[in-house]
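@channel sequence for tomorrow's demo:
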Amino acid sequence: MTDNAEQRGELALALARMQASPQDDAARLCFYGVLADSELFLMLDSEPGPGQLRPRLFDLAEGRVALVFDSEARLAEFAGQTVDYAALPGRVLVAMMAGEGLAMMVNPDSEAPALLPPDALRWLADTLAAPSPAEASARAAGFGPPALDAAALARLRQALERRLSGVPGLTAAVLATARWESGGEGPVLALARVPEPARPKLARAVAEALVLSGLEEGVLDVIFPLETAMAPIAEVGLHLSPEPFEPATTEPAPRAAPGMDPARPPRLR
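structure tokens (generated this afternoon):
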């Protein structure tokens, strides 16, 4: 077994937390979020063809199930022999499986693997494909610290830091409470120095993080203030710590593994 503490990645840890608390919706949603953001390794029946994949499927009570692993080493140890596989972004694989009505078993070699039935994959695929939220036009009269309860704030912070990691240009991300000129107040996420073309996609990523942290869509407004307007928010808000953007090296990139281009995902057959 590869499922020991030294070899556990983020997905394996999220799976263990979910399995340890099967009634905890927050742990389940966290697992879904990590799954979507992970690179996954799909066991295949044969070598990938041009634009097509043939996953190795198993007929279980839950339906036809594909086997997925969070590392090449885990897949190889489980198979016990050389097998064909494809490496894919989790969100691409989820959409493909949902489109074919398949189920997915994650890390079947672990003590408690995750079996995601077709309806769970369809829900996750729909969540990941949600359109960008409309841009808010309200003006803030002032800001204060975030007013969410500690548990909700911890889940939201984790989900946002994961989704904001590696965003080019982002220099600061701050959660706060906005007091609107039109009346009322609510939580707001202020993002500094994000290029305008990237803002709609980033707003959608934030909406996705909301759902996967157990909060309702629309409870968090996203704003992109200028540096002068960011200062008073930063004084009172909660600073997030996403991983910074790392520019690509100048060395030639290795040839991508089958299925690794999200813009041109292969088809299952």
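heads up for whoever presents: Residues 1-7, 252-260 have pLDDT under 50 and may be disordered.
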